[in-house]
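Quick one: structure for this chain?
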Amino acid sequence: EYLNSIGPSVPIAWEFMVSPKIVPLLVKQQAERAFDVYLYLLWKYDGNPQAKLTLYYDDLAKYLGIYEGWNTTNYRRQIIKIFRKLERKYKLLKFEPQYAKEATITLLNYDEGIGVYTIPNERYFELPDDYFKLGWSRKLSLRAKFCYLINLANSDISDIKPFWSKSVNTITKQFGNISQDVIHKGMGELRRNNLLDVRYNQMDGKPYEARTPKMYKLLKLYDPKEQELKLKAVEDQYGKAQYDKARKYAEMVFEENNPKVIEDIILKTKQYGEQKVKKAFDLIGQKNIDNPKRTYGYVVGIMENMK
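Got it. Here's what it folds into:
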């Protein structure tokens, strides 16, 4: 399902994304916790003109997944370390801790921390509340979270909605000269998690460099816990051996987290036999990862046309 109406959301300034001193730097330095905490603060900020928030250590520790099994002193120390980094290294906030009490946070402007933060009213895009509520900040890697924001930003200004299209080279330059590897792997992870539809231009005999850029379409955020239950239900119904084999095949077409595709591969194996299914996936496996035919629909077509 396409992300056409995102409901409650957090406005994110383009400047936050493209300034080489903010998100691209956080990603390059693999400062995942700092990235997560800052977005969490934007989510919790109520818009008051002083740009102040009260930091509830327990709530943030639960959000970061460091509450269970950690004692209070340890997770507070860890959180304080993250805030010191956001304050001193990235100049995104002012941190005022108090002994044995909650801390006060002041969000700062993106101009080297001069002046307080204000909610953007131009050149911004919306990050859905479900990103936080459904636990995607814990499930995705930093590069995939970064690519999710890139997709939101570019979808918002696209003139070919619900798709948007730019070359990887353009994307890397647009977002602080980030490495192409981050973009390739981040986009791939979103695709494998059924959060991104990627369309490749059809092969038209042109050399690789001359092809038009890929088209991306963000899909609606879903509850990963529910998805896990659906995957488990398929495994329970057909048994681990059949499930594992089908999931390996599904991985070849970026669908290993899609319970419907995994179940369909199991059913197609019963219908056509293991040999035909293996042959169809072997054929698709020979195709480049960027080949537009590397889809489950194309595999099904091969099976249906086999003698």
